[in-house]
Design brief:
Elements lengths: L6 H4 L9 E2 L6 E3 L1 H9 L3 H12 L2 H8 L6 E9 L2 E7 L8 E5 L8 E8 L4 E4 L5
Parallel strand pairs: 2-7
Antiparallel strand pairs: 1-2, 3-4, 3-6, 4-5, 6-7
Length: 131
């Protein structure tokens, strides 16, 4: 696999046991695929956005109306014309419980999906192919 961030390269990541701990949001860990996205897309800011939202209370609040959110939820960053929209959903067929517009980004993909699962101790961020 070359080091470019492409959708095709992301499909090469599959589940393994290696994890990286977020340096500030210590209850958030992430897989090699998410680390690759951060490194190759120069997008550690994206991991920060997810991690700080998860530990900052928004997930607990949203989980009061939909308990699924407290175990598993789905993030998506959509990019168009150097502007991005970050959303989180409990499932694909429901409205987002979290939306944030990012007024400028040079993120190289048109979109990225990252899933978040809670194991009782840590939130793990991972690519769908790593499920």
């Amino acid at each position: 696999m070359n080091d470019q961030l492409t959708h095709a390269n992301l499909r090469h990541f599959s589940g393994d046991l290696e994890r990286t701990r977020h340096p500030l949001a210590r209850r958030v860990i992430y897989t090699p695929g998410v680390k690759f996205v951060a490194e190759q897309g120069e997008a550690y800011w994206l991991i920060d956005e997810l991690a700080f939202t998860i530990v900052g209370g928004e997930i607990q609040n949203a989980g009061q109306s939909d308990p699924r959110i407290l175990e598993l939820h789905f993030w998506r960053l959509d990019v168009k014309d150097n502007t991005a929209t970050l959303t989180a959903r409990a499932d694909s067929d429901v409205e987002p419980f979290y939306t944030k517009v990012i007024p400028f980004t040079d993120f190289p993909l048109d979109y990225i999906d990252i899933w978040a699962a809670f194991d009782g101790e840590h939130w793990t961020l991972y690519l769908p192919s790593e499920h």
